[in-house]
Design a protein that fits this description.
heterodimer; A: about 210 residues; alpha/beta; Rossmann fold; nine-stranded mixed β-sheet; 5 helices; 11 strands; about 25% helix; B: about 725 residues; alpha+beta; Phosphoribosyl-aminoimidazole Synthetase, Chain A, domain 2; seven-stranded mixed β-sheet; about 35% helix; globular
Amino acid sequence: MIWGVLQFPGSCDERDALHACELAGDGARLVWHESRDLDGVDGIVVPGGFSYGDYLRAGAIARFSPAMEAVAEAAAGGAPVLGICNGFQVLCEAGLLPGALLRNAELRFRCHQVELIEEGSGERLSIPAKHGEGRYYAPDEMLDELERNGQVAYRYTEGHNSNGSVRDIAGVTNDRGNVLGLMPHPEHAVDPLTGSTDGLRVFQRMSGVAA
Amino acid sequence: MTVGTPKYRELGLTDSEYELIVEKLGREPNDVELAMFSLLWSEHCAYKHSRKLLRRLPTEGERVVMGPGENAGAVDVGGGYAVAFKVESHNHPSAVEPFQGAATGVGGILRDVFAIGARPIAILDSLRFGELDSVRSRHLLDGAVRGIGHYGNSIGVATVGGEIYFEEPYEHNCLVNAMCIGFAKTAEMVRAAAAGAGNSVVLMGASTGRDGIGGASVLASAELGEGDDEKRPTVQIGDPFEESKLLECCLELLEKGLLVSLQDLGAAGLTSSAGEMASAGGVGIEIDVARVPLREADMEPFEIMVSESQERMLAVVEPARVAEVRAICEKWQTGSAEIGQVTESGLVRILRDGEVVGEMPVEALVDGCPLYDLDPAEPEGWIYGNRATLPHGASPEKELLALLSSPSIASKRWAFEQYDSIVGSRTVRRPEQADAAVLQLPESGNAIAVSIDGNGRRVACDPYAGTIDAVLECAQNLACVGAEPLGLTNCLNFGNPEKPTGAWQLDRAVSGLADACNALGVPVVGGNVSLYNEGPDGPIYPTPVVAMVGELPDPAQVAGGGFARAGDAIGLIGPFEPSLAGSELAKQRGELAMGLPRSDITAVAAACELVRGAVRAGRLASVHDVSDGGLACAIAESAIVGGIGCEVNVEHLRERGAQPEEALFGEGPGGFLVSGERAALEELGATLLGEVGGDQVTIGAGDRSLSLSLADAERAWRSLPAQAEGDGA
């Protein structure tokens, strides 16, 4: 599986995502935000950072980039799309994922290791989170529907929901399951030296979508 | 402006300095020239009260790639790679507006590092505020921490470490020193010297506005006092998104070999970057201000030349490559304009639409400022006052809790969790996991460690010995993770050097820095000086902040600072001779006075080497440097971080002449608290103190013996959030 990692002005974690994709897949390359052509990649990561400085609203400008048009088409065709942190915000802004990300309940940026539980498998993952606008929100009716459809992918375990996300939700998918967004950073959990390798499982999950 | 006061005095020049300018020009300067001279001849740019002293510092070493005089220093880390680093102060802007002051401090130090072609990989900060019971200190702390986070997080450079102290003398004049570490292929690094008459001068990045006119340079060269609010418009505003684009753009330009030289625009804006580039290259430079992209159309030439608008870089480019350079700027959506050229004239010539509005010899402007000798005199006693918060005769448990909850000693998690410490995938040890930050360098197959230190209180007690101790603490922190020092940089934060006490503190501290670096064989590759740090109540503690970068072969071998396994032996390594002089306990008892014991640098260096070897060989389960709050605090910290208690006895320190109280809370360099297998510790010659285990911290110290639950100790040590956020928390 060949991954493409989008690169916007203001992206921060694109090199880390590229490295993680290389470890988890068969290759990876950066895709410039102005490119309408995804260069034949099998799956796409919309990485973390502060695309366009997060001006206006996090993710609000990046969603209009030519590369995001191509991502929307690829997603409609069933290609795996993984949005991490700012990438999650971009996918929500683009309407590819339900809900929105609001400012953390404590109104402070926070960087720390969090524990997630994968819905369905019940697997626990230790992955770092780092954001100031990561409080997942959706109206109750929508949340009920997401839960019914199995679209809640990851929740924070008890004591780890530091941003105040509704129903402890850390990550959600689209209806079809090929688009996943989450606030914690699986690309920063792929090396035992820097803390954990649990993030690889998130990439493997998305590879499974492609297969 | 007061009627009758000459303009040059309002701009901070003395009568004799002005006369010298007239002599060098052979005429009176016009307004443009006067503005430019006043900035480049300010303390901030000319180092006129410190440059002579700084000549004492050793600057050469085998691993030095770039030394003082460049935008940042750099050392060789092997495999054709270099690590660049620099610390700079943004004290006065932060005291006026902490969020933007700290944010632009980070932005400025990042530019210094990518100006030499290194990709920034880490940020550290050294901060000083007044005591946290003051509303102003809480406001400054909160703003500065948010500002550092805002800039560093947004631009995607990991903030991996730092230190914060809270002391009364910083109440009006906080310190915000930011450090950046960069990584580069040595062959792709670039110097700041302009070269090649006829080459184009290209200004890249943000447009130029009235913000920050006179900002750093004027603010940094006068004491703070009443009316600081009026200075708010002179504080610069940072935009990390603009800098992120500029950074990627500059690195791409350098990688493609399109630039002859590159320089950031910091204090004194275009004036200093153009002047310094010309001076370093021994050439002249010509700039047409009409070609500078402006935010406000009606700016005067002098305003354009001194504006400190952020996120701008100046490059020298061969004319044939200008189009290619501008195309890459366009790709990164960052501005670019050809604003002038390199000349052979030896003059800085400022034009507006081709008409000359200012013309000065480079030599006079950049290197012509007179350097002053200081007039030092030792003060007769302790000049900083004492405030007792802990009575004599308190129980040792109460004393330990009071020290652990002191905001200077307490865990700084509240602050560092507001920073992205992991972006870039290099952070092997996050803050609090070890005494120094550790960053892996897969490209060169090794790792570096970084530490930044400077206990101003100890330096106030004895500027010479205290500065030596700051350097030793830095070296010890590196040893704790198995790193060998490669180079040192520093930021000298002092009071007014024109006053005898300020001059004495600066003079003695620089001597201490020189002697420590010489004895350790660590070259000083760069530095920054921030003087006139005084408030209405007097000067700050003299605060030399020193930062060291070291190399370690295998990051997998780094031990943590917390106890690891029940049953491990606990020991003390090194020539630690605890003393209450200048200690946190003496501060809390209101007993600070002049004087510190003199450290044996050679003995401490030998202990560092021993610990370094043991860490590299994987023989220690934990290592923690004994520092603020003495051995008792080091023991409690290792227990809290490891999540496991211990039972130790420190009475052995009697043999070193230490009374029980000194053994518990006395401070001084040279001590490493280690844990591991008993045989390993014995082999290293450690003084065995006890054993890891249980959920109590029990320390035998004769009639001062104490025992605390790990939970109580941790509660005290984790009390910073409540203190930082005041009553509302």
